[in-house]
Amino acid sequence: MSTYSIKDLEQVSGIKAHTIRIWEQRYNFLQPSRTETNIRTYSAVELKTILNVSFLNKYGFKISHIDKMSPEQMEEKILTINQMDAQKERVVNNLIKDMVSLNMPAFEQQLDNYIAQKGVEKTIVEIIFSFLERVGILWMTSKINPAQEHLATNILRQKIIYGIEKLTPVTKYTKRVVLFLPEAEYHELGILYVHFLLKQNGIYVDYLGTNIPMGDLEFLVSRTKPDYLFCHITSPAKKFKLDKFLDGLSKINKSSPVVLSGQIVRDYKGQVASNISIKRSLGETIQFLNTI
Question: Which residue of 7, 77, 173, 255 shows the fewest CB atoms closer than 10 Å?
Fold first, then answer.
């Protein structure tokens, strides 16, 4: 059974670890276990509880009042909150809860309902993007069971591809971008989302996909001379060597700048070649995409 740290709960719920500790001292809705070294660990049930508590507290309920509610009462109260932002957040929370419970029929139904109401483009921007932002750290730290991750990502992949296909085809364009993942990296939701945003802005995308050898990338660049190469590295296999990868990219045609994002490269402290730039935050990445 998956267990979560207090930092995991902070990442997913948006509630600071310090506040979670205070709530534990004063109220009863969270009862973490302790390791032999006295470190808190939380179950999937407690992860879902903190999502419900943080949601209700954000939209006006006092913690002392929430503490007296049963799990069923919390769910009932959540359904009564109708602000637009609350509705979006409720869907994202439900996706997280359905994923950790392996309730994939409900997970997909949440997405399909939102698509039916708002359309696939808004679902990708408002729901899928927020979901990935909040659970990404759990995937990177292996706090989500691989089965949970694979089931969720395959459903999300289908929805994003559907959204890409629904956009107007790019036949006349001024910019061309190659999207790829290096060898040993198969987590493509990040570059699929970038594909959606670029196509939405009328930019032509050469989508190479996952596990691309450097030689194949060099071949494409030499023939098509794209305006940019973009790669988002989430969680490559252990055999992946970042320094070797960066060295290979440095030898790519200098007229096609390389843009990298993702947790693996955000924390990189070494020097990079002049044709490589690293976007170290989500904001930087979005800003770059909007300026192409």
Answer: 255
- Cα–Cα distance between 47 and 166 in angstroms, integer? 35
Q: What does the chain come to in residues?
A: 292
> Residue 110's domain spans which residues?
83-166
Diameter over CA atoms, the chain: 66
Angle between helices 189-200 and 282-291 in degrees, nearest 10:
30
Amino acid identity of 83? Q
Kindly report the CA angle at 102 between 99 and 103, in degrees rounded to 5?
A: 90
Scanning the structure block, which residue is given the tokens 């309730």? 103
The string of pLDDT tens digits covering residues 240-284 is: 999 999 999 998 877 889 999 987 888 888 889 999 999 988 788
pLDDT digits (tens, 9 = 90+) for 173-220: 999 999 999 999 998 998 999 999 999 999 999 999 999 999 999 999
CATH of residue 194: 3.40.50.280
SS3 for 177?
strand
CATH number of the domain residue 127 falls in: 1.10.1240.10
Reduced 3-state DSSP string for 105-172: HHHHHHHHHHHHHHCHHHHHHHHHHHHHHHHHHHHHCCCCCHHHHHHHHHHHHHHHHHHHHHCCCCCC
C-alpha closest to that of 107 among 119, 118, 95: 95
Question: Do 120 and 132 belong to one domain?
Answer: yes
Q: Which residues pair with 278 in a beta bridge?
A: 260
Q: Specify whether the CB–CB gap between 40 and 32 falls below 8 A.
A: yes
Q: Give the whole-angstrom CA distance, residue 159 versus residue 155.
A: 7
Instruction: Round to whole Å and give the CA distance between 7 and 13.
Output: 10
- Given a contact cutoff of 8 angstroms between Cβ atoms, the answer to whether 209 and 178 are in contact is no
Q: Tell me the C-alpha distance between 74 and 77, whole Å.
A: 5
